[in-house]
Design goal:
Helix content is 77%, strand content 0%. It is mainly α and 292 residues long. The protein has one domain. α3 packs antiparallel against α9, α6 packs across α8 and α6 packs antiparallel against α11. The radius of gyration is 18 Å and the shape is globular. The termini are close together.
Length: 292
């Protein structure tokens, strides 16, 4: 029970850090940073920083079996690279609110995939928690105010792909955690994801070299705190929780993002957003009360 409680708190902490990513991004984009270049550098810097720390303090965690390299390459490509690309494409072809809402379909995908590949039970409790947190996330994202004229098939498909690819991070991660330590899993997922993002970005990465030093400080912070820290904490919690339960808890991220927007940028929080946050909290609490 203590181990599960610690895992739940760890996932919540990770979701809180991940929810702050938008605030970090807005600070960087003041310097006209290219979004794809920024997310690529954040993955590469995160991987290099973690590899350096492990080389100094726990070098044995750098070792993986050569036969597992294709697995981690696929893990990084689908769970990191494809997720970022699909999400930015969804934003391009539809609205931010719709893209965020479709992204947060990922707990449903995790529940279905974990039932098939991880043999986790697909219970009514999980389905209720997924529905409640998805509804709450949609309200927080203010999907009801979305410009529905921009809703098209491509936008929907990219949004669903972002949710599905994000779900694979939990499914692949759960598989990898059966064999490797969480830090090893995060390192190779980030390294593979960053490498594929760099290949996709190509020359678009080069203008970032001319960013001012203060912009690079923000990028460094983005890479180490919300990105590396958030994914690492989520993966640590995932080790001791069912993948479906961890993904539902992680929807706390959208609530954190909304409240940070209000706290840091004085963005207006509408009553419907507060209602959505309450639904997300209820869904997270529901899954803990019944599944524990």
């Amino acid at each position: 029970m203590l181990k599960e409680t610690r895992a739940v708190l760890t996932v919540l902490a990770g979701a809180t850090l991940l929810g702050s990513m938008g605030a970090w991004g807005r600070a960087i984009y003041r310097y006209e940073g290219n979004p794809m270049a920024v997310v690529t550098w954040r993955a590469l810097i995160g991987a290099m920083a973690l590899a350096g720390l492990l080389a100094i303090f726990r070098p044995h965690l750098l070792r993986i079996r050569p036969r597992d390299l294709p697995f981690f390459a696929l893990y990084g490509f689908i769970g990191v690279t494809l997720n970022f690309w699909a999400y930015f494409s969804a934003v391009k072809f539809t609205t931010l609110a719709v893209a965020i809402t479709l992204l947060y379909t990922y707990p449903a995908f995790v529940a279905l995939l974990s039932a098939v590949f991880l043999r986790e039970r697909l219970t009514a409790t999980k389905l209720v928690a997924i529905a409640v947190t998805l509804f709450g996330s949609a309200l927080v994202a203010q999907v009801h105010q979305a410009d529905w004229l921009r809703l098209n098939l491509r936008g929907i498909l990219f949004g669903l792909l972002s949710g599905l690819s994000m779900a694979t991070y939990s499914i692949f991660g759960k598989r990898a955690l059966a064999r490797y330590a969480p830090w090893t899993v995060v390192l190779y997922a980030f390294a593979a994801g960053g490498l594929f993002l760099a290949l996709m970005s190509g020359p678009r990465l080069l203008p970032a070299i001319r960013y001012p030093a203060v912009a690079w400080l923000w990028i460094l912070g983005l890479a180490l705190i919300p990105s590396l820290g958030g994914y690492a904490l989520y993966t640590l919690g995932l080790r001791d929780l069912p993948a479906s339960q961890a993904s539902i808890i992680a929807t706390w991220e959208v609530v954190t993002a909304a409240f940070l927007g209000w706290l840091v940028f004085s963005e207006h929080l509408a009553p419907v957003q507060l209602l959505g946050a309450a639904f997300v909290c209820f869904g997270i609490g529901w899954i803990q009360r019944v599944e524990s």
